[in-house]
Specification:
single chain, 110 residues, mainly alpha
Length: 110
């Protein structure tokens, strides 16, 4: 029974990411491809694609993940607090972003 609940939660989170990608005019299936999904999240958050390399460096990856999450939040018209929620509690905040009324607004690169 526990495995079924876990599987349902994972499917819900994947569907939430799919919806966030589509809201940002990106292909939804991209959330399923390792590394490419992070590259697309960087694009959504208006961060340079080469930051993907920085995610392989211990401790630096924490900072980059937080900055990427804040960028995603800002791109959807949310604040830094919501971005921190995406970084640390993504399983709660990505569904809020996916099913809420937030709209993607492309920003200039930082």
């Amino acid at each position: 029974m526990g495995m079924i609940i876990f599987l349902l939660i994972v499917i819900f989170i994947i569907y939430s990411l799919w919806r966030v990608f589509e809201k940002a005019s990106q292909p939804g299936w991209a959330c399923l491809i390792p590394f490419y999904n992070v590259y697309i999240l960087l694009k959504i958050g208006n961060k340079p694609g080469w930051w993907l390399i920085l995610l392989f460096i211990p401790l630096v990856n924490l900072v980059i993940s937080i900055l990427m999450s804040i960028g995603i939040a800002k791109a959807f018209g949310k604040g830094e607090g919501f971005g921190l929620g995406l970084a640390f509690l993504g399983f709660i905040f990505f569904p809020i972003l996916a099913f809420g009324d937030a709209e993607y607004k492309a920003l200039d690169n930082n």
